[in-house]
């Protein structure tokens, strides 16, 4: 079911791409513009992913393992940039520095909103690391830096590579930041193609290319993640030792503060400024409340459906290694690479032709969110199930419980923090989603994202500020809960 859901828009793309014939497909593929879009998109994804890998690993290590002053507060604050939609971040940066645009502007904005995708899983891996492994390395004469390189990094490598993959996929599918920064990536090229002509075939072909790029990234991540099992601290009697930073303590604190200022301070300052500028015009409170309720409703429905679809995929990937599990997991990642505008248009076509009773209703939009964000939930479920001791399932089976009952009453309770973390991550990401929401939102329903975009399109920054501010609050709540779920998982 999950694989079918993820592949439905892809099937539509393939049909639309080839309906004009193979000659048209090859002509579009070999155009210089297609190559330029591919190079631009991959360069941006690689640059942002590399920067997020460095920031995420260092930030997680400082917040979990070091004696950084205020590290518990820093651990919470470093998660909050995940709640800032890319288009809100781009809007706030442009409002302060109007000349910021192009590759550099998109790189800055996407890095500052994406590094928590790496920080969160790495922090969880650091909390579950067995301190004995590092202590043995130190007892053998390894220095602290070599211990970190040879032992700690090996433990967090699967989490870091998985988080980096999500960053790369997020950048490939981003529409809001690249459009506001006027950087012509694949998503903006597809949108322009849809808007510029009645012929949708070139845009469908470009969408297929984007899916291929995403699948290549996913395969590369699986190879980098490796298959070696790493020992965790589950059941350990003591936590890992805190590393003293010494003279590096103040520079490390200043680095964390600078990162928080750039990722949170600039958006908050800009929004407060525009709220102050627009105070004389007042706030349309009924519309603001209606948009907030609409956001919570559709994002909650999307999170519920996504987790329901992700659980069997995550269990299969964690407990049954083979071609089937690899194929299903790869299929679940396909939709995440599709830009929201492409998924939205695909489901508009599907709704009008196949399921008109669902068109522009909440279930159709929830399905779009499930297609787009299934990998977020699958990754969380897979990691949580993999950390649940298989021996407990064996005991349950030996006592006469079947496979299904064992999964429901043994595996799922143990994996609950990770599953809830996945639900929280999908909720906050759905609340921020823009293009598919614009096309598929239920009739008469507006969300914070759509109201914000409508105002920024006409340059009404003061009118957009209240919706942006409430959207940040709505998205910040699951971001904080997400961090708490991962902390609970690390202490189990």
TrEMBL record:
Record-linked SUPFAM superfamilies: MetI-like
InterPro entries (alphabetical): MetI-like, MetI-like_sf
Topology in membrane: Multi-pass membrane protein
Keyword set includes Magnesium: no
Listed GO CC annotations: plasma membrane
Domain spans labelled ABC transmembrane type-1: 38-221, 292-482
Pfam families (UniProt xref): BPD_transp_1
UniProt superkingdom: Bacteria
Major subcellular location class: membrane
Alphabetic keyword roster: Cell inner membrane, Cell membrane, Membrane, Transmembrane, Transmembrane helix, Transport
Transmembrane segments: 41-64, 73-94, 100-120, 159-181, 201-219, 252-276, 296-318, 330-352, 364-385, 405-428, 458-482
Compartment annotation: Cell inner membrane; Cell membrane
Keyword Translocase assigned: no
GO BP, one annotated term: transmembrane transport
Family the UniProt entry places it in: Belongs to the binding-protein-dependent transport system permease family.
Protein name: Iron(III) transport system permease protein
Organism: Saccharomonospora amisosensis
């Amino acid at each position: 079911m999950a694989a079918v859901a993820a592949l439905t828009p892809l099937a539509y793309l393939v049909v639309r791409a080839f309906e004009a014939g193979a000659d048209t497909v090859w002509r579009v593929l070999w155009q210089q513009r297609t190559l330029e879009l591919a190079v631009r998109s991959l360069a941006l994804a690689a640059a942002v992913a590399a920067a997020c890998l460095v920031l995420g690993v260092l930030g997680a290590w400082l917040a979990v393992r070091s004696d950084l002053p205020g590290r518990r507060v820093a651990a919470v604050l470093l998660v909050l940039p995940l709640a800032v939609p890319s288009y809100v971040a781009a809007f706030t940066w442009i409002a302060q520095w109007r000349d910021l645009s192009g590759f550099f502007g998109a790189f800055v904005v996407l890095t500052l909103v994406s590094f928590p995708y790496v920080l969160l899983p790495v922090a969880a891996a650091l909390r579950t690391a067995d301190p004995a492994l590092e202590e043995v390395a130190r007892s053998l004469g390894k220095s602290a830096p070599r211990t970190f390189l040879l032992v700690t990094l090996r433990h967090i490598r699967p989490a870091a590579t998985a988080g980096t993959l999500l960053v790369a996929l997020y950048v490939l599918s981003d529409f809001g930041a690249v459009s506001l920064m006027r950087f012509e990536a694949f998503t903006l090229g597809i949108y322009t193609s849809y808007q510029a002509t009645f012929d949708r075939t070139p845009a469908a072909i470009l969408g297929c290319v984007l899916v291929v790029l995403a699948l290549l990234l996913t395969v590369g991540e699986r190879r980098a993640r490796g298959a070696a099992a790493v020992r965790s601290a589950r059941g350990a009697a003591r936590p890992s030792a805190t590393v003293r930073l010494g003279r590096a303590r103040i520079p490390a604190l200043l680095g964390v503060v600078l990162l928080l200022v750039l990722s949170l301070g600039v958006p908050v300052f800009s929004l407060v400024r525009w709220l102050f500028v627009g105070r004389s015009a007042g706030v349309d409170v009924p519309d603001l409340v209606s948009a907030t309720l609409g956001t919570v409703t559709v994002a909650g429905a999307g999170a519920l459906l996504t987790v329901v679809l992700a659980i069997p995929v995550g269990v299969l990937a964690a407990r049954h290694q083979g071609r089937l599990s690899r194929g299903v997991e790869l299929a679940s990642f396909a939709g995440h690479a599709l830009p929201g505008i492409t998924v939205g248009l695909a489901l508009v076509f599907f709704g009008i032709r196949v399921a008109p009773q669902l068109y522009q209703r909440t279930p159709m939009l929830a399905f779009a969110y499930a297609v787009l964000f299934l990998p977020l939930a699958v990754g969380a479920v897979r990691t949580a199930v993999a950390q649940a001791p298989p021996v407990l399932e064996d005991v349950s089976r030996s006592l006469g419980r079947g496979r299904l009952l064992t999964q429901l009453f043994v595996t799922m309770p143990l994996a609950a923090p990770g599953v809830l973390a996945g639900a929280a991550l999908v909720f906050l990401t759905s609340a921020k989603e823009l293009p598919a929401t614009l096309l598929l939102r239920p009739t008469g329903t507006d969300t914070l994202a759509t109201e914000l975009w409508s105002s920024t399109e006409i340059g009404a920054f003061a009118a957009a500020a209240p919706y942006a501010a409430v959207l940040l609050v709505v998205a910040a709540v699951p971001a904080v809960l997400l961090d708490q779920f991962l902390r609970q998982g690390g202490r189990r």
